[in-house]
Description:
The complex is a heterodimer.
Chain A: E1 23-25, E2 31-35, E3 45-46, E4 53-54, E5 59-62, E6 71-72, E7 77-86, E8 92-100, H1 123-132, H2 145-148, E9 159-164, H3 173-180, H4 182-196, E10 200-206, H5 210-220, E11 226-231, H6 240-248, E12 263-267, H7 268-280, E13 286-292, E14 300-305, H8 310-316, E15 324-329, E16 336-338, E17 351-356, H9 357-360, H10 373-377, H11 384-392, H12 396-401, H13 412-416, H14 423-442
Parallel strand pairs in A: 1-14, 9-10, 9-12, 10-11, 13-17
Antiparallel strand pairs in A: 2-8, 3-5, 4-7, 5-6, 7-8, 13-14, 15-16, 15-17
Chain B: H1 19-41, H2 43-67, H3 78-88, H4 96-111, H5 124-135, H6 137-140, H7 159-169, H8 173-176, H9 183-188, H10 200-212, H11 219-238, H12 246-251, H13 255-262, H14 273-293, H15 300-317
Amino acid sequence: xxxxxxxxxxxxxxxxxxxxxxxxxxxxxxxxxxxxxxxxxxxxxxxxxxxxxxxxxxxxxxxxxxxxxxxxxxxxxxxxxxxxxxxxxxxxxxxxxxxxxxxxxxxxxxxxxxxxxxxxxxxxxxxxxxxxxxxxxxxxxxxxxxxxxxxxxxxxxxxxxxxxxxxxxxxxxxxxxxxxxxxxxxxxxxxxxxxxxxxxxxxxxxxxxxxxxxxxxxxxxxxxxxxxxxxxxxxxxxxxxxxxxxxxxxxxxxxxxxxxxxxxxxxxxxxxxxxxxxxxxxxxxxxxxxxxxxxxxxxxxxxxxxxxxxxxxxxxxxxxxxxxxxxxxxxxxxxxxxxxxxxxxxxxxxxxxxxxxxxxxxxxxxxxxxxxxxxxxxxxxxxxxxxxxxxxxxxxxxxxxxxxxxxxxxxxxxxxxxxxxxxxxxxxxxxxxxxxxxxxxxx
Amino acid sequence: xxxxxxxxxxxxxxxxxxxxxxxxxxxxxxxxxxxxxxxxxxxxxxxxxxxxxxxxxxxxxxxxxxxxxxxxxxxxxxxxxxxxxxxxxxxxxxxxxxxxxxxxxxxxxxxxxxxxxxxxxxxxxxxxxxxxxxxxxxxxxxxxxxxxxxxxxxxxxxxxxxxxxxxxxxxxxxxxxxxxxxxxxxxxxxxxxxxxxxxxxxxxxxxxxxxxxxxxxxxxxxxxxxxxxxxxxxxxxxxxxxxxxxxxxxxxxxxxxxxxxxxxxxxxxxxxxxxxxxxxxxxxxxxxxxxxxxxxxxxxxxxxxxxxxxxxxxxxxxxxxxxxxxxxxxxxx
Lengths: 443, 333
């Protein structure tokens, strides 16, 4: 019996059509736009001005508090301006525009791609290096990694979980990375284990990636303490709480952090970025992005410099299909629909998914028939139909009691509702309102 | 960029399932029993079924269009299901005008007065049936002679009717045994009764189809039948001369139809497995109590309606197991 989480879950069609496309390096863009807020926490503060000449890897915006992170130039060239523009959220955000000239890297970055397994740093140095390198969770949450590595006072990490689940349909960037950089991920995992002072780490991979499971398992013997855990395919297994439950059997208490059960979770992409930062002095300025969709001519996985316009990725994958109806940054279950593809790739961009017009529109919704499917698929054991109703009626104290804040917004309820009800839309609204109320109470 | 893109919050994909498909699966599941009713009762069964379906669809359409003034949604399949279930719950020789009154009670009182699909507390078809049972007791309990020759068909009374009469008159079970069909005929449906309830086997078959296609889960049918078997079994063990063995209770009357098709109605049944078991057990127990001690030989319609009324309460107080539930610490003394 393969491990998985117990409560709820759905099985959307996997559609991993880009799974066999090797990671290709996307040609350098002519210009980039780097938003200073591309992580959870305080936006970084620009430290370059118009006209400055920058090199690849140079800090262009500095972390402004503990929960924040540095941003490095992904290209070499001249700063055109520091201004606002639209990013993938659809809002205008401050950012740095750079015109690309050549490809000149900072000298301290080791551009040699040979594997470097040995490291001799103490936990503090590792965490400092990760913080300096601007690493955030690359699974899409973009939470600054160094913050996770410093557990709150009185708490101790016992186990590190590396998330290779990639449960979102279509996306394959983590899958490809595991196939092409398995040992780098292992070394990155070892580095994170050292930083956390834990003896055990598990890499969780869903069973629809047997090649990755096999490859990593064959390498694991060289890295004592790291176990590979094949998992039964079920969405949203890549959710932090679901992954912890699946691998360790423990449940993060409501309102608590994973550290409450002694777990820290990082994505495989993050582990790879940690490897590069610690072993190669390479800050986070590029990542793997899947470009996919049923109508896409050449579904691909690209290694992309941050700030590259999404349009260039789409062009490299064969151009925007004629019948495009929706462009999504991320996967189909939790990704964000873009109003325009003219937005930059940021640290959290795991994929660009193009849906045809026929797939883009929601179907009209009808009355709830109280079938209870939303209740049975909710991985948090909530009652989405009820949360929608109480949010719609502004019964926010009821919503709070029914634990609306526990919702992880995985979308399983809306996905499964036979009446096409926009459950998650209303739950998000209720969550936002209850969140406000809870915060105002604390003041 | 000339293209206009759709922007909406996630999720961006949807399962291919729809309410209409679910309703149609319920219809498919009832087709074997429907065909059997035509085989047993002849053209009359088809007549009753067609009138019930047409009347339910018509009342749904008329009430939505002219009374509620909303866009009629008769294609969602829910009125079709109600129509078939209503037909399944009446004798095959019921006059056409009584069927129409039943359809009006089902759709008008049972469903639309609460606000239509999804808002009704009670199973609409059962509201229609009980309305007719109380208003037209004679027509609703005179069962047609089955058309099958060569089989030991019961005429005029259902197995449960015979059992009830014996129970009321203090006749021992062993004395009526010859009048009762054997369990095999109960299973196959060579008995008298409402047109859709007679063949336990075909009803179970449709139930398995609904289980596989995830229209229903096992909880409600198992809880209804299990609790009914348990309770009637206890009575039977205490006094087998007075109370008949549980096989008759399970296989006769509306037990299978009720447990598999009526109690499981999504709208009027509870949401979580735990509350579904309580709800199902309540139906099973009430059914047997009515059959043994009530005024009517059959009690499952009443049992379901009574438990329907408790569903909002069950939904309110029985919560699913929450992820990461923090157990409340007992208050320190």
